[in-house]
Design a protein that fits this description.
eight-stranded antiparallel β-sheet, globular, 19 helices, 8 strands, alpha+beta
């Protein structure tokens, strides 16, 4: 069955633009998707990477005491400026505070600290190294200044490549599905795999392309609107999607400290909105008469899609100055932006949705790899000179080395999180991760001269390193996966089991390749036989 598709000229144009745009972004796109796949479960990894928090029990949060302890640790902590507290959840127990230090020479100083709610310890480093590192890698934030914009452009080109890919295969879409086979030439194999799996994952891939572009390039999209419609006042634009920005603060308001009213307001709000979990607290002018305390909350029903609520109060008299509840008075813009966030981070549907997203992200990684190999195989013809073919081969090998070495490096990241000492922990863990990625990528290029050998090399080394993750956890914390299961620490158990099964699966694929039977010695060994063995 054939559908009406593009004309020949349009088909050729879209085919070549799809190929060029796809190969240019493929390596970075693979990194973004694989890092993003693990980022989906960063809350579930939290206790695995923080053994000291595994056996703690939850205690009531004393917001006033937290602010006082931060003030004691940082005497220049400015409570009159905006303060944000990221509150603990069932997965992440610690508290993060984002604030400002008293300006020196007119220069505003931002700072953030991590607070252990059980011990009260204050640290200037993130409490989630694995989640933080992979989350930032997901949008290339480790590249200074331009990393996020590069990620946004990659998402934009990915959206273009996805749409053009659908268009060029549209007229034969049913034929390609029913004609899928593993037999034939390598070119035919990678063509079938890239086309069929790409079409199957198209809705998911397009969703991520659109939402990723929105997040990374929003500032470029909104800049003309800010300049033309809002006279350059970007705060008015942010207030459209973040209602807390609309709460006013008078810089001439008298100095009156309202810290002692925070806990009462916090407790009464939780009692009034029992179906909502507080995620963030925002304070404005805490040391002045017009001090306000605002809540960003989320419906405890994890299947809810439109689930965020915003509440705001004046601390001096408890006056309610902001109340936006889902399905009541949320604006169109707020619903759209929240919908984009919900879709992108899979914050609906609980673990089922996260698991589907994770598998689809890995599915997309396979589509990217098959596209790289198809690009190379399609250029093995007489239209290209030997020098051009060699160039295509080297590009393919470099791309595969970058992509395939990332998963083993992530396994190293998990091991390093538990093995690296606490002193300057994040710096050294990140150094081990990126250093191992570089070493693994370089080693793959040195030991393998063709794609098949490189693929099996990374399957083998990746399988060994994956098995090391639960082994390291058991040796360091004594909480082996069977112990964590008995203790109902399911996030720790699931993390170990995932790496265990992944390691066994990768080794199952790799071992047969490296233990091929030697040829019959009675048969003369020719150069062709040697090539077949290698």
């Amino acid at each position: 069955m054939k559908l009406k598709g593009l004309g020949n000229r349009a088909y050729n144009i879209f085919f070549h633009t799809h190929t060029v745009s796809g190969i240019v972004i493929s390596a970075l796109l693979y990194v973004i998707f694989l890092a993003g796949a693990f980022t989906i479960f960063r809350d579930e990894f939290y206790l695995w990477e923080n053994p000291s928090l595994r056996y703690q029990t939850s205690t009531p949060i004393n917001i006033e005491a937290i602010l006082q302890s931060v003030k004691k640790a940082k005497p220049t902590f400015d409570i009159d400026d905006d303060i944000t507290l990221q509150l603990p959840t069932q997965e992440t127990y610690t508290i993060r505070l984002f604030g400002h230090l008293a300006a020196k020479g007119g220069q505003e100083q931002h700072f953030h600290v991590t607070i252990n709610p059980f011990s009260g310890a204050i640290e200037d480093i993130p409490s989630s190294t694995i989640g933080e590192t992979l989350y930032r890698l997901h949008f290339l934030d480790q590249i200074p200044i331009v990393g996020r914009y590069i990620a946004g452009l990659v998402a934009l080109f990915f959206m273009f490549a996805s749409i053009t890919g659908l268009l060029i295969h549209w007229r034969n879409i049913f034929t390609k599905f029913w004609g899928f086979t593993l037999r034939g030439s390598l070119k035919q194999l990678w063509t079938n795999a890239h086309t069929v799996f790409g079409l199957l994952g198209f809705p998911f891939q397009l969703m991520y392309a659109v939402t990723g572009t929105f997040y990374m390039l929003t500032i470029l999209v909104l800049l003309p609107a800010v300049m033309v419609l809002y006279g350059g006042d970007q705060e008015k634009v942010f207030a459209i999607v973040n209602p807390i920005q609309t709460i006013s603060a008078d810089k001439n308001s008298p100095k009156i400290n309202h810290v002692d009213k925070i806990n009462t307001t916090f407790s009464s709000t939780l009692a009034s909105f029992k179906n909502y979990q507080p995620l963030y607290l925002t304070f404005k002018h805490l040391g002045r008469d017009d001090a306000s305390m605002s809540f960003t909350m989320k419906d405890t029903d994890k299947t809810a899609f439109n689930s965020h609520a915003w509440l705001g109060y004046r601390l001096k008299n408890g006056e309610n100055i902001l109340k936006i509840i889902p399905n009541q008075n949320k604006t169109y813009a707020q619903s759209v932006v929240e919908g984009i966030h919900t879709l992108h981070f899979a914050t609906y549907g609980g673990l089922v949705a996260k698991t589907v997203y994770f598998l689809m992200a890995l599915f997309t990684c396979f589509v990217i790899i098959s596209g790289i190999l198809l690009w190379k195989e399609a250029r093995k013809n007489k239209n290209y000179t030997p020098q051009q073919k060699y160039f295509h081969h080297r590009v393919t090998m470099y791309y595969l080395a970058i992509c395939l070495s990332l998963l083993p490096a992530i396994a190293v990241l998990f091991c390093a999180e538990l093995l690296v000492p606490a002193n300057n922990h994040k710096f050294w863990v990140d150094s081990v991760f990126f250093g191992s990625w570089l070493i693994l990528g370089t080693t793959g290029l040195l030991v393998a001269k063709e794609e098949t050998k490189m693929t099996h090399w990374y399957l083998g080394i990746g399988g060994i390193l994956a098995l090391a993750v639960p082994l390291v956890n058991g040796m360091v914390t004594k909480q082996w996966f069977w112990v964590s299961f008995q203790q109902q620490a399911y996030s720790i158990f699931a993390t170990d089991i995932f790496w265990l099964l992944l390691g066994l699966f990768m080794l199952t694929l790799a071992i047969p390749y490296f233990f091929k039977p030697l040829p019959n010695l009675k048969t003369p060994i020719t150069p062709e036989k040697i090539s077949e063995i290698l």
